[in-house]
Every structure is written in structure tokens, then in C-alpha cells.
Design a protein that fits this description.
- With 93 residues, the chain is mostly beta strands.
- It has a domain at 25-81.
- 0% of the residues lie in helices and 27% in strands.
- The chain is built from no helices and two strands.
- It has strands at residues 16-28, 71-82.
- A two-stranded antiparallel ribbon has the order 1-2.
- It comes from Hibiscus syriacus.
- GO terms for molecular function: DNA-binding transcription factor activity; transcription cis-regulatory region binding; zinc ion binding.
- It is found in: Cytoplasm.
Length: 93
């Protein structure tokens, strides 16, 4: 028996939308005792880049020395849309 895939497309009015994303890196989650079978984190509360954007220092935390990927990533997404109200038909002559 063959499976069929149905694709439904909706036509929606064009809207002017803008997506704003901000990324923040929180506490460090690196396990410093993984080599001995334990679990210990260093207590670093927030990622602070040790260099300017575009350099290798931008990926290293100034507080704990860990790579940025060890820090919890928090993404905030805000969608802003501009919708116009439908035209009023009672004003027609």
C-alpha cells in the first residue's frame, strides 16, 4: 500500500512582518569532573566574551575560560507585524 502526502497551501494577505531575535548565553554547564566520573560545574552565571566580535576571543568566556557552547543559550524571538484594517464599504458613493 502506498502512502500519499497531501500538501495544503493557504493564500493569506501579504503582511509586513519583522522578526527580531536576541541571543543571550546564561550559566556555564561544563562538567569539570567528567574525566573522573563525577559532576562539577564552575558556577559561572553568565557568558562574557573575552574579545571583540569576529575574533577567537569572542567565543571564550572571560569569567571561566570555557567555550561559548558550554553556556546555556537563551533565544528571545519577537515578531512584529503591521496589519491594516479592511476598507470600510459604507463610505462608497
Amino acid at each position: 500500500m502506498r502512502k500519499r502526502q497531501v500538501v495544503v497551501r493557504r493564500k493569506e494577505p501579504a503582511r509586513s512582518t519583522t522578526t527580531i531575535r536576541s541571543v543571550r548565553y546564561g550559566e556555564c554547564q561544563r562538567n569539570h569532573a567528567a574525566s573522573v566520573g563525577g559532576y562539577v560545574v564552575d558556577g559561572c552565571r553568565e557568558f562574557m566574551a573575552s574579545g571583540d566580535e569576529g575574533t577567537s576571543g569572542a567565543l571564550t568566556c572571560a569569567a571561566c575560560g570555557c567555550h561559548r557552547n558550554f553556556h546555556r543559550k537563551e533565544i528571545e524571538t519577537e515578531v512584529v507585524s503591521e496589519c491594516s484594517s479592511p476598507h470600510n464599504s459604507s463610505n462608497r458613493t
